[in-house]
Design brief:
10 helices; methyltransferase; transferase; signal-anchor; methyltransferase activity
Length: about 270
């Protein structure tokens, strides 16, 4: 039996639909397919094809940067032979410090203590050379032993200078033959450093210095670090202390901190 829909169509169009009606239906179906196909392809392209130029651009940029790095590396390697040809500096430049030249600063008009500051903008003339290591310089002891014992000759402190220093210095440092031993367990000195770090913690709203690491503190600047006792104490709290001090010909605070294995720089 035929369905009611087919019976109604046969009544309207007859037992056989006209050819024009079939063609109209066929064209309508093709038009619908074309419309939906173009919209879906556009949406698909907008989703998939948009990142392609960006990905390609980023890849090309990385490739260009890799080429630049490669040529820079070749330049450095090719220039390494020229660096080996540099001669040693004279003994007068044994304690050479970049950007530190009191004579040049005085000639440039700096005075009233400003001539002792480091000034890289002051012109300097001289040939390139390799600075010699200090005479009789010894490699520091391994950490953590090097934190408490250093070679006295590396920081240029003589026995006479040590004996003429104050009592606090003698309590902190003990000169033994050619070594200087630090005694952080000294009650007076340790309590002073501990109290100083506690005051810093209280300024940050903390109960004690042991909470500094938990509060997110990682690096502390120590301006004029002295013997590095403060930095050595903070190391035990998992904090890094950077010593910044002025240049000194003898007994340099920066050199002393470096000899103890603590970060330091000339300011």
């Amino acid at each position: 039996m035929r369905s009611p829909l087919l019976n109604k169509l046969s009544v309207i169009f007859g037992p056989r639909p006209p050819v024009s009606w079939l063609l109209l239906c066929f064209v309508s179906v093709l038009a619908l397919i074309a419309v939906f196909g173009s919209s879906s392809s556009n949406s698909f392209d907008s989703v998939t094809s948009t990142p392609v130029p960006e990905i390609f651009t980023n890849y090309r940029r990385l490739k260009e940067q890799a080429a630049v790095d490669y040529f820079e590396l070749r330049t450095i390697l090719s220039g390494s032979s020229r660096q080996r040809e540099l001669g040693l500096c004279g003994k007068e430049r044994e304690n050479y410090v970049p950007c530190y030249n009191v004579t040049a600063n005085l000639i440039s008009g700096f005075k009233d203590g400003e001539e002792f500051d480091r000034r890289c903008e002051v012109p300097r003339h001289g040939s390139w050379c390799l600075v010699r290591p200090p005479k009789d310089y010894k490699i520091p002891l391994r950490w953590p032993a090097g934190r408490d014992v250093i070679w006295s000759g590396n920081i240029k402190i003589t026995k006479d200078q040590f004996l003429s220093s104050g009592g606090v210095t003698k309590r902190i440092m003990l000169l033994e033959e050619n070594q200087i031993a630090f005694h952080p367990e000294d009650g007076l000195i340790f309590d002073g450093v501990k109290d100083y770090s506690r005051q810093i913690a209280e300024m940050l709203g903390l109960g004690s210095d042991s909470e500094l690491f938990q509060a997110g503190v990682r690096t502390v600047l120590d301006i004029g670090c002295g013997f590095g006792s403060f930095g050595a104490h903070l190391v035990s709290l998992k904090l890094m202390t950077l010593c910044i001090a002025a240049y000194e010909a003898t007994g340099s605070q920066v050199q002393l901190a470096l000899e103890r294995g603590l970060p330091a720089m000339i300011g």
